[in-house]
Structures are given as C-alpha cells and as structure tokens.
Here is the input.
Amino acid sequence: MNQMQQQTDKLSVFEQMESEVRSYCRSFRTVFTKASNAKMWDVNGKCYIDFFAGAGALNYGHNDSNIRTKLIDYLLEDGVAHSLDMATKAKETFLLTFNEVILQPRRLNYKVMFPGPTGTNTVESALKTARKVTGRTNVICFTNAFHGMTQGSLSATGNRFKRAGAGLQLGGTTFMPYDGYFGESLDTSFMLEKLLDDPGSGIDLPAAVILETLQGEGGLNSASSAWLRRVEQICRKNKMLLIVDDVQMGCGRTGTFFSFEDSGIKPDIVCLSKSIGGYGLPLALTLIKPEHDIWSPGEHNGTFRGNNLGFVAATEALRYWKSNDFQKDIKRKSEVIFACLERLAADYPDWISEVKGKGFIQGMAFRQPNLAAGLCAVAFNNGLIMETSGPYDEVAKLMPPLTIEDAVLKQGLTIMEQALKEVIETENKTVKYAAVAKVEVTYK
Ligand code: PMP
Here is the structure.
C-alpha cells in the first residue's frame, strides 16, 4: 500500500460518517494526534508547522503550558464547568482581568455581553443590539466581508457561494465598496456618505455599519486609518452604530490587541471570539458601549454563553498583554514575515501581484488564482499548514500563532519558499508543454 492509499484509508471513517460539508480535512488530508505551539503531528509521526492557527483561534499556539496547567488545576478542583450565565468565580476573575489588562489601559469602557461561544454568535448579538438601539433594520456591510454562517451574519457576508447556502432571501443589509475596492484613487467612504446623505438614494437609514479592519477571509484587504475614521464620522452624523468585527483580527493578530487601536476609532460594539478563549476553547464576547446596553434580562440568551473553562483559559492568556513585550515581539516577527514575502514578490513578479495584510496575517496574491491553492497543497506535503483566502482563493495566507519560535517561523518560511518554487516550476513546464502542443496542432 503506498502512502497515498494509506492516507485515504485513514480518512475513511470521516469520509463515510462525516457530512459532505466537511472542508479543512479535505485540504489537509491526514489525521492529527498531537500539537504544541506552532507544530502539529499526525498519526504517522509526521510534523507540520502550523501557519493557520485554527483560522485565528490559536494566537497563543497549541497547548500553551501555563494555560494548560490552569485548566487542569481548575478541573481537578471540581471547578464549575457549565453554569449557563450564572455568576461564577471563573467569570468574575476573567471580567476583572479583562478590564484591568485590556480595557482600562486603552481607555475603553464597554459592558461585556456573552453571546453563544462562536464568532457568528457575537455578530448576531451585535446586529440585534444595533437594530434594537436605533429602531432601524438596515445594516451597511462591505464587499468581501465575512461575518459568519448564520442568517444575520451571512446577510452581511459577501461570498456568493456561502450566501447561496442560506436557502432563503438574505436581507436587512446593504453592501458598499470596502476601502480600496475601486483602487487607491477612489475613497469609497465618500460614496457611502453621499448615498446616506441623499434622501433619493434608495438606501434606508441604517442601524449600523459592520466592518473588519482587515478582511481575513475576503483576501487580506485592509482599511486605512483615515478611511476608518471617515466611516466613524459618517456613523456619528447619521446616528448609526459602528460595529467592528474583531473575531479574527482581534487578540493581537494585526499587532495590537484590538485591530482598530492604531486608527483611533472607538467602535460602539466590538465582536470578539476565536482567540479570546486562549486555548482554542469556544468563547465569544460582544463589547457594547454602556449607553447602548439596553437589553432586558434574558431577551437574548442561550445555553453556552460563557463557558468556565473558556474563562479560565482566557484569563491566563491575558498575561501576554500585561506588558508591552508581547506586542513588540509580534512586531519584530511580523517584519521577518513581511521581508520574506516582499523578497518573493520581487523574485517572482510575473506570478505574485501583491503582498497583503499586516502583522501576523499576511499573504501573497497570485496573478493566477489557482497557484495559491497549489502552493498550499505542496506546502502541506512538505510539512506546512497554510490556507487560501479571497473571492477567487487567490491569496496564500500566513497566520502562524503569535507565539511561534523564531526558528520555527524561519523553517516554515523556508518550506513555503520551496513550495513556491516547485509550484512555479510545474506551472512553467505545463505552459511550455501546452505551447509545444499548440505548435504541433497548428502544423498538422
Ligand atoms: N467574523 C469573522 C471576521 C470571521 O473571520 C469569522 C470566522 N472565520 C466569523 C466572524 C465567524 O466565526 P465562527 O466561525 O466562529 O462562527
């Protein structure tokens, strides 16, 4: 039996029993057993470097040993694991730590709402809050946005394939061009302003604008600080709430705890999930300016709002943010990633059109979209896990854990570079063969 057959057999349980909707196990065709920081191992003992980090849920890496110790201690002490949204010591400690380490130093004042534990849960609760506060229904969202897979968040998501899965008419949203959608020379915030100012534009005054400061799934498009500030002003002028979906970009992914910190905007609502759970544990927060916290008790609830293991892990994870060292380290390592990508873009200008993203979420956009998936496939074969992004899956995206060791980061970049060379070589050969075949056909 060759290795390919062995791998196919290993996956047979999933192929027979798991729904056709499964996805990542199709790109990464092996069965994983162990993981530590930025490395994963499969059943054959093969080691992979993880440049995907649970799609942003593992900013602090796999199995951080301090967090693990806290979790084990909590379990051994018979700490409450499930408690709906009852008051627990674990929740209290988390709230106090979050306030002390994150909110206060940034002069942010938010009430914390615990929706269900996923990204889409926080987005749904944010949309409901904005509609309830303003009494309006329409929400402005942006081209190539990704906010989740349930009805409300999917209504604000651009991807046509994903939207079609809803099976009904998605509504209550108006899509506007994101920053840079028409190129650098056109500031799309002016279009938004004009359309909202104009009573004849056909756009109902919205309850909110929801945006990602950097579109993780939508192709690593980033909004400039100036654009974000203009959008904030437009929100204020039209009495709309500004919602920042920091589900993927929060918790340090772009270099600061909140992705909007450097821009100076103060969103009315912030959605956090993924890495807030510290250890890859499901947890989500919806941060709401106190004046907008107009919920009645139990008006929006759910069984898994705030799980205590999530609180224990999240509290310990916040230790990374107690000093500036972590942030400095993210910056230093993200410059290593940027330098590597810039060099590759300069070496292969016919193939790579652009280096995109920032901090610990960067990538290469390919002129020929399928090369991004080709690169990820070869990289996986060579021991590196990374994914594509963008409407045509044209961007090969790197998002390692923020805690990745320097040597492992370098090793991962080397594997990626090698994979890139292999993919381009294969593509060059295919193009040559196709050209020869064409010449032969022409001369027949
Ligand atoms: N918002 C953003 C910006 C996301 O990237 C994601 C997930 N990729 C979500 C929301 C949805 O999160 P979840 O998959 O946990 O529902």
User: Anything to note?
Assistant: The domain at 65-321 is CATH 3.40.640.10 (Aspartate Aminotransferase; domain 2).
